[in-house]
Design goal:
InterPro entries: B30.2/SPRY_sf (IPR043136). By secondary structure, the protein is α+β, with helices and mostly antiparallel strands. The protein contains four helices and 16 strands. The strands form two sheets. Strands 2, 3, 5, 10, 11, 12, 13, 15 and 16 form a nine-stranded mixed β-sheet that branches.
């Protein structure tokens, strides 16, 4: 029984009709499920020509960020942009939705931060109180700083990636399908050598600025079909929940 028709799968799927098949796809939440679904039967690839198909795929891939701003004194959300208040203070802004499955990329561009900026991931139980920096939840966060390139967690000022500045595209990719789960960082699409494994099963992305009237814009927040690692000399995996050396 090597043919799909032997399992009465081929005919039954096509018998549903293209609109019902599209409805099934629209209920999916990660692109990996769509890929597996289309692989069941080559004839379903006819859906690729349907104008509604690509709208559904975009709705699955693209994620709309919601900034968790606890007080107006922190700043405000303007579309996909967070604008800091007119006073210098800690503004660590967690981003919804929580990520618990698939592979997701989060990218920001900082402006007017004076290099007092960072981004990273946090355990989903952490959403940052107003006027609080990400290091104050050290055991629940991984922090990548622009000013010096340090990658911190429980231990600080030991592990370092490349520095970054305002105007550069800084991103993190979490792979919740790998074993162990991991987060990898990028500067202008260049993969950084130090990455973190064993991350929690549910996380939020976050970004941080200090300077008054600084800002960050979420330029990409999307689900990926697969994780493609670059060949990075000196690449090193470090563990969530442990002291780093």
């Amino acid at each position: 029984m090597d043919d799909l028709s032997d399992y009465n799968v081929d005919g039954s799927l096509l018998g549903l009709g293209e609109y019902i098949l599209l409805e099934i796809i629209s209920e999916m939440t990660i692109p990996q499920d769509v890929r597996q679904y289309l692989a069941i039967c080559k004839k379903i690839h006819q859906l690729l020509e349907h104008p509604r198909y690509w709208k559904i795929i975009l709705s699955i891939i693209q994620i709309t960020p919601l900034f968790l701003i606890k007080k107006e004194s922190q700043g405000e959300q303007q579309g996909n942009k967070f604008v800091h208040s007119d006073q210098n203070n800690y503004s660590a802004i967690a981003i919804d939705p929580v990520v618990s499955e698939g592979i997701v990329r989060f990218e920001v561009v900082f402006e007017n931060s004076g290099d007092f900026s960072s981004l990273g991931i946090a355990d989903a139980s952490c959403s940052f109180a107003a006027n609080k920096g990400p290091a104050q939840d050290g055991k629940k966060t991984v922090r990548y700083y622009g000013r010096n390139g340090y990658l911190d967690h429980i231990t600080e000022y030991i592990i370092r990636n490349r520095r970054y500045k305002d105007g550069q595209r800084i991103s993190a990719i979490v792979d919740m399908t790998s074993n162990p789960r991991k987060v990898v960082f990028y500067v202008d699409d260049i993969e950084q050598p130090n990455f973190v494994i064993g991350i929690p099963s549910e996380i939020r992305f976050w970004a941080y600025t200090w300077n008054k009237s600084s800002s960050f814009t979420v330029t990409r927040f999307k689900r990926l079909v697969q994780f493609n690692s670059q060949i990075v000399p000196g690449s090193k995996a470090i563990n969530w929940g442990k002291s780093w050396k």
